[in-house]
Structures are given as structure tokens and as C-alpha cells.
């Protein structure tokens, strides 16, 4: 599969490609008519479509068309794209291709759909449309020739793309697009300077009226003059220092109803006047005011996390006053220019093709992993360790907070019979073992168990990441050192980077625990459940201590003398044997198939992890549409 990026610009266009076999190789430029970057111009010559320089030099001037993207001339977009599609066929030799074309960030979904349909109708195969700002960010992230610390790209980044017709912004925080997303000015582009250089030249020409008449009758000749104005602008801004006390000019001849000559000139004074005069297309603002306002708006919407990095793309990003205004609006940001900004969008589009295809395959495999049942299998393997820890904690809590205090009262005669004490004990446990208390008791245990479970699953997830060249840190269930010793681990849920998944597991385990063994209110666990064992255990201890061999039921209601009660020692009740009996009683209740505790718990934990994995897989992609 070849992934082709087609940067159809309003002024210039570029075609790039990268192969599915490429890993560390950058997209390469596909030269169109031996030009790495070619003029977005189209003309016809005896029904043959000519594009770029050929359209200018060999095409019928009356059919010449330029700047058709900003005007959204559907016919011209389709014709130009068909000419490009014919050129691309020369490179692909019938291979399977996917073509990604960029569009301004400010275009809405409906306009993008229309644009994609035009491109499809032109003969471009397997074509899709993404924002040029997204392509710029991907290029900055992937390209080897942009010297940016990779860690900076994980911070707040603002991509500013200035082209011939638009000024686009993409705001990315932590490597992902924010809710602010992409925004821009669909009318503010350096092509405005071309247009007003041409108007200035017409105004100063002695045959002004004749030239205006030619342009009125022949849009093609006007397009030809616009291309010359663009050339003058680019030459001037490519070396402003050289022309600071002089000017650059180009002359052209208009062969229409005779010959008219036109000279287009750029100088510091002319440029200064153009960028500071009111422009109708910008609602009466000057070019400079429009630029300053757009940058001000960008600074305003990013104020909560100001960009640490500004990436400037587009051929016009070389213009000095543009860079100066960016620095003024974002004084604390590091500003980075691509070495070849005119190719950054095209290469980013090619990157997008291969990256997005990889992401689709990646998400597909993650889904297969989720559906395989591996997660639930791991949960069921580990669940007994969790139950043992829960039982141990509940046993200690019940003995220390309910049993011992009441036995002390019974020994002092403040509770009459063992049956009375059992009823008091049941009520006390009911009131103290609340859902909130259960969570408080078990939270640390569940966190530790959850981390271990996630750690066991992570290696399989990492293998999938490695297969599709996805950064493993993007798919961490929780952030934890892989060398962590889980036997010596202490956690606070408030300090975990993976708080959402861990907090979710804590909540659902506590919920299932309460629902299954406490009947939702703490009653089933008490006298009728495993904690009813306490009364029986106490009874056995007393019988053994004082040698009472009559009916146990009679003994439960008998008021035992105080002296006899003193024979019951604390260490008898807290012996390992009795604690183990109590723990086994609770464990049996938890593992009882009738209450489906393990089954429900396993399914709930598995579902929580499944949802987490699905979301992580979706979030891996930078969602800039």
C-alpha cells in the first residue's frame, strides 16, 4: 500500500508518498513535471489538462485558472485534481494507494464532504480529507528534520499554518486535540498580498483602463498576472534584507487584443501600505489587524494552558512580520519553523495516511483482545487472592470493633446472656459495617490487587503497541513502574495517574460486595450469614472453658455467673484457629455460587477494563477533524 499526501494549496501544491513498508523513512516528494512544489494552476490545450508550470507556459491563457480553492470553484478543483490524478498514476503503476488531501481547519463537515466528492469524481482513488493543521502537527511529531524535544510535543502545542488563502490553528494538549480543537480565519492568507500587489501595479500603469478591460473579459489572463504577483511576493520575502532599500519587480506581457505590458513591484513601502490598508475581505480590517486579531483570539482560547511550543507551517511562515507577530502574541513559547515549510503539510498528509491505517488495525486488534476473554480469565485467576485479602480484613475489623468490646461488657455483667450479646453484636455490626466503612476498609487492598491485575495484562497490550508502532505509554492501564514489587506497595487513590480505572474497580468491587453479602444494607452478612459464626465460636469457647455439657440452646439463654465468665480469655477468641474458622465462614459465603459474588465481580471488573482499553485505543489518535 502506498500512502499519498496531496497538499492542494490555493497557491502551490505538493504530492508526497510513503510506503506501508516504511518505518523510520520520511515521506518523499513525488515531483510533478520535475517540480517538487508546483503552482496550483490549470489550463486546457486542445482538451488536454495542463497543470502547474505547463498550464502557465503552454496552456490556453483564456482557460488558465488559479486560486480556485479559496473561491471553491468546483469545476476548477475537479479539473486540476484530475490532472494531478493522471500524474500520480505514472508513479503508482497500478499499486493500491490511499490518498489524503488537506483542507482548511475552518471548513465545516458539510464542505469537507462536498470537497471529498469533488476529489473522488476527479479520479483520485481511495481519497479522504483531513485538516491541514492536523497534518502539520503530525509532520512536526514524526519528521526527523524538525529539532523539537519530543517531550515538548506532549505539552501544549499550537500549530499555526498560514497559506495563500487561510490562517489555521490547531491546539493540542498532552499530545491530543482539546475541546477547542481547530479554528482559523478562512479569508486571511498571504494571497491577499498577491492580489493587492497586482492592483497596485494596475493602478500605476499608464494603460490602466485597457488592462482592466482585458481582465474583465479574460479571467485567464488575470490569473496569469496573479501568478506573476505571487512570484514577486515570494522573491521579495525570501530575502527582505536584500530589498530593504530597494525593490523587486517582474514584467509581463498580456497578449489580448494587442499587447499590454505590466510591471509588478514589491518594496518595503508598497508592502507596508498593503498590509496596513483596510481590506473588504477582512471586514474592513487591514491584513496586519486581521493577523493580530486572529493571534489574539488564539491566545485567548489557549490561556488556560498557554502553548509551550508554536509550530509555524506554510510557505508564508517565512515572512518576517508574521513571525514577529507570533512572537509578540506568545512571548513565552518556543517557536519552530520547518526547514521546508512548503512541504510540511504534504508530508504530514502522507504520515496521516499510514498512521491512521495503522491505528485502524491497532484498534481492531485491541478489540479482538477484548473479545478474546483474556481479561476475564485473568480476573478469575487473581480473584481468590482478592477474596482472601478481603476476608482477612473483614475478620480483623469485626473482632476488634464488635466482638471484643461486647464480650468485655458481657464479662462485666452488663450483658445478661449470650443470646442477648449475639443480638447486640448483630445490630452493632449492622450499624458499623456500612458501605462507606467497607470502602474505607478495603480500598488499599483493592488498589493493590488492581495494580497487580493491570500489570499482568499490560505485557499483552504492550505487544500489540509494539506491533503497530504505538507508544506504549499511551496504552497504560495505570502508570506504574514495571519493576514494582507488588508485595511492598502502598497507594493513595488520590495520587494515582491511573485514578479513573482504579477508582472504577474500587467502586464496583465494593458495590458487588455490598450487594452480594450484605443484601444492599448490611443485614445478610450479620447473624444469618457468616458473622453468625461469632456467637457459635463464643459458645464453643465457653463450653470448653467451664465444662458445660447441657443443651446449647439452653446455654444461650442462661445467665452465666460473673466468675465463670472470667474464664473466657481474649486470647482464646483471638486464637489463630478461631480466626481461621471465622475467616473460612466469610470466605465460604463469598464463594457461595448461590449469591454469584465471584461471577458478578469478575464480569464487572472485566467490563471496566474493557471500557478502559477501548477508550485508550480511541484516544491514541489525535482527534483533529
Structure, explained:
This protein is an alpha/beta fold and 625 residues long. The chain folds into 3 domains: 1-145 and 341-364, ATPase, nucleotide binding domain (Nucleotidyltransferase, domain 5, 2-Layer Sandwich); 191-282; 372-619, no CATH class. It has helices at 52-57, 68-71, 74-92, 109-121, 132-142, 191-203, 208-217, 219-238, 268-276, 287-301, 320-329, 341-371, 374-411, 418-432, 435-467, 499-517, 533-546, 552-557, 562-565, 570-573, 576-591, 597-619, and strands spanning 2-8, 12-19, 28-29, 38-39, 41-45, 48-51, 65-66, 97-103, 127-131, 156-162, 167-173, 176-185, 248-255, 259-266, 309-313, 334-337. Strands 1, 2, 3, 4, 8 and 9 form a 6-stranded mixed beta sheet that branches. Strands 12-11-10-15-16 form a 5-stranded mixed beta sheet, sandwiched between helices. Strand 15, helix 11 (320-329) and strand 16 form a beta-alpha-beta unit. Helix 5 crosses helix 12 (341-371), helix 6 (191-203) crosses helix 9 (268-276) and helix 12 (341-371) packs antiparallel against helix 22 (597-619). It is elongated. It starts with a strand and ends in a 6-residue tail after the last helix.
Amino acid at each position: 500500500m502506498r500512502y499519498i499526501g496531496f497538499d492542494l494549496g490555493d497557491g502551490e501544491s505538493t504530492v508526497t508518498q510513503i510506503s506501508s513498508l516504511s518505518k523510520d523513512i520520511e515521506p518523499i516528494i513525488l515531483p510533478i513535471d520535475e517540480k517538487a512544489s508546483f503552482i496550483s494552476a490549470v489550463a486546457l490545450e486542445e482538451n488536454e489538462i495542463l497543470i502547474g508550470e505547463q498550464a502557465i507556459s503552454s496552456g490556453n491563457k483564456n482557460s488558465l485558472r488559479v486560486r480556485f480553492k479559496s473561491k471553491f470553484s468546483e469545476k476548477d478543483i475537479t479539473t486540476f485534481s484530475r490532472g494531478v490524478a493522471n500524474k500520480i498514476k505514472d508513479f503508482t503503476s497500478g499499486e493500491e494507494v490511499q490518498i489524503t488531501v488537506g483542507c482548511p481547519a475552518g471548513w465545516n463537515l458539510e464542505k469537507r464532504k462536498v470537497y471529498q466528492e469533488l476529489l473522488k469524481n476527479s479520479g483520485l482513488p481511495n481519497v479522504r480529507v483531513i485538516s491541514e493543521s492536523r497534518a502539520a502537527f503530525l509532520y512536526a511529531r514524526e519528521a526527523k528534520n524538525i529539532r523539537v524535544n519530543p517531550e515538548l510535543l506532549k505539552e501544549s502545542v499550537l500549530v499555526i499554518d498560514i497559506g495563500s488563502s487561510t490562517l489555521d490553528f490547531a491546539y493540542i494538549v498532552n499530545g491530543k486535540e482539546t475541546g477547542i480543537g481547530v479554528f482559523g480565519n478562512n479569508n486571511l492568507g498571504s494571497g491577499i498580498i498577491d492580489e493587492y500587489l497586482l492592483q497596485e501595479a494596475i493602478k500605476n500603469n499608464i494603460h490602466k483602463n485597457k488592462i482592466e478591460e482585458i481582465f474583465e473579459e479574460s479571467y485567464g489572463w488575470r490569473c496569469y498576472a496573479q501568478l506573476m504577483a505571487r512570484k514577486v511576493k515570494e522573491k521579495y520575502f525570501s530575502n527582505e534584507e536584500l530589498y530593504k532599500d530597494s525593490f523587486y519587480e517582474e514584467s509581463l506581457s498580456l497578449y489580448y487584443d494587442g499587447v499590454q505590458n505590466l510591471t509588478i513591484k514589491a518594496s518595503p513601502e508598497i508592502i507596508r501600505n498593503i498590509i496596513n490598508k483596510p481590506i473588504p475581505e477582512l471586514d474592513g480590517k487591514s491584513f496586519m489587524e486581521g493577523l493580530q486579531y486572529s493571534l489574539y483570539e488564539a491566545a485567548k482560547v489557549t490561556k488556560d494552558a498557554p502553548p509551550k511550543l508554536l509550530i509555524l507551517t506554510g510557505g508564508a511562515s517565512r515572512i518576517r512580520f508574521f513571525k514577529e507577530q507570533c512572537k509578540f502574541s506568545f512571548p513565552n513559547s518556543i517557536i519552530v519553523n520547518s526547514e521546508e515549510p512548503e512541504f510540511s503539510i504534504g508530508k504530514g498528509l502522507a504520515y496521516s495516511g499510514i498512521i491512521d491505517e495503522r491505528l485502524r488495525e491497532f484498534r481492531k486488534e485491541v478489540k479482538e483482545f477484548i473479545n478474546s476473554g483474556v481479561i476475564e480469565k485473568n480476573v478469575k485467576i487473581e480473584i481468590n487472592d482478592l477474596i482472601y485479602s478481603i476476608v482477612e480484613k473483614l475478620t480483623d475489623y469485626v473482632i476488634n470493633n464488635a466482638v471484643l468490646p461486647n464480650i468485655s461488657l458481657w464479662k462485666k455483667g452488663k450483658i445478661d446472656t449470650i443470646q442477648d450479646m449475639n443480638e447486640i453484636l448483630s445490630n452493632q455490626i449492622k450499624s458499623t459495617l456500612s458501605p462507606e466503612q467497607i470502602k474505607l476498609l478495603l480500598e488499599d487492598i483493592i488498589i493493590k490487587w488492581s495494580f497487580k491485575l493491570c500489570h499482568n495484562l499490560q505485557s499483552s497490550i504492550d505487544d500489540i503497541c509494539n506491533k503497530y508502532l504505538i507508544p506504549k505509554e499511551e496504552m497504560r492501564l495505570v502508570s506504574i513502574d514495571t519493576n514494582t514489587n507488588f508485595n511492598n506497595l502502598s497507594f493513595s487513590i488520590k495520587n494515582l495517574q491511573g485514578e479513573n480505572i482504579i477508582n472504577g474497580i474500587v467502586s464496583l468491587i465494593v458495590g458487588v460486595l455490598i450487594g452480594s453479602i450484605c443484601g444492599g444494607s448490611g443485614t445478610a452478612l450479620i447473624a444469618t450469614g457468616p458473622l453468625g459464626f461469632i456467637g457459635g465460636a463464643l459458645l464453643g469457647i465457653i463450653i470448653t472453658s467451664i465444662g458445660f455439657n447441657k443443651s446449647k440452646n439452653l446455654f444461650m439463654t442462661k445467665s452465666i455467673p460473673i466468675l465463670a465468665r472470667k474464664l473466657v480469655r481474649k486470647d482464646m477468641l483471638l486464637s489463630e484457629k478461631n480466626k481461621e474458622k471465622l475467616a473460612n465462614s466469610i470466605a465460604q459465603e463469598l464463594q457461595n455460587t448461590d449469591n454469584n459474588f465471584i461471577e458478578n465481580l469478575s464480569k464487572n471488573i472485566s467490563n471496566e477494563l474493557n471500557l478502559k482499553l477501548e477508550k485508550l485505543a480511541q484516544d491514541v489518535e489525535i482527534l483533529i477533524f
